[in-house]
Amino acid sequence: MEEIHFDISRKVYSQEEFDKEYRYERPAKTWRSFLEGHISKFNFWEQSKIWFPFLDWIPKYRANCLIPDILAGFTVAIMNVPQGMFALAALMVGNVVNREIPHETIANLTEDTPLADRPDVQLVVTLTFLVGCVMVVMCLLQIHVFASYLSDSLISGFTTAAGIHVLLSQIPLLLGLTGIKERSGFLKVYYTLYDIFSHISRTNLAVLVLSGICVIALYIGKNYMNPEIKKRLCSLPVPLELITVVITTVLSQFCHFESKYNMVIVDKIETG
């Protein structure tokens, strides 16, 4: 049987070479065609749900989640906002105020100075407004898509490093150490550890005992009490953090932690 051989060869083209040889010209795009294409695909309701996500999940919200969400809201409002998000924002804004406004200007202000006339308040209000404008623009431009390019390893490393810094910042408070200066810059973690161990002999035992009791109580409550309560009594989680804050606040008031045990307390919160 005679064998048949096929020899097939084809020239390899790049897109530019292909267009040139076959005289293909791409249609010119005009602003009108661009806008017409986007407007025809635009869905106001779907876009509104992207801008305001609550429009998407509110119709699907289950009534049995209302009470747990209310408890979570109270816990976040009383604990996480003052100690976490508010503290972080105050730290960043405070640095701007210290850098832009001379210390002498703030020192010369009196209690009778109206808030609207205080330069630090004016700066904070202006900065807040500008940040809000930037965030609105970022929302309209859908800048959040750039987050999809961040790898899981990067996010995990960042959150772990942030957790280490937060832990180190809390250790002096848990031990009641005073006189430890705030470190910054390169090798901050190691310098902070050095400061902690060099001042370890000044540990306030009352603060250490109270911190230990709170940590142990929260651990036991979260890992042992809450599951049993949800299993036997009700499905609502017990706001242990909120209860701990209330109890320690009452004890601090009536047991005079500040005067008797030299504990640092929040004390009076100034207006503004």
Automatic annotation (TrEMBL):
State which residue ranges cross the membrane.
123-147, 154-180, 200-221, 233-254
Provide the primary localization.
Answer: membrane
Q: Where is the SLC26A/SulP transporter domain?
A: 84-272
Q: Which Pfam families match?
A: Sulfate_transp
Membrane topology per the record? Multi-pass membrane protein
Q: Answer whether the UniProt record assigns the keyword Signal to this protein.
A: no
InterPro entries named among the record's database cross-references: SLC26A/SulP_dom, SLC26A/SulP_fam
Which compartment or compartments is the protein found in? Membrane
Keyword annotations from UniProtKB, A to Z: Membrane, Transmembrane, Transmembrane helix
GO biological process terms held by the UniProt record: transmembrane transport
GO cellular component terms given for this protein: membrane
Q: Which domain of life, per UniProt?
A: Eukaryota
Name the PANTHER family on file. SULFATE TRANSPORTER (PTHR11814)
**UniProt-recorded name of the protein:** SLC26A/SulP transporter domain-containing protein
Organism per entry: Panagrolaimus davidi
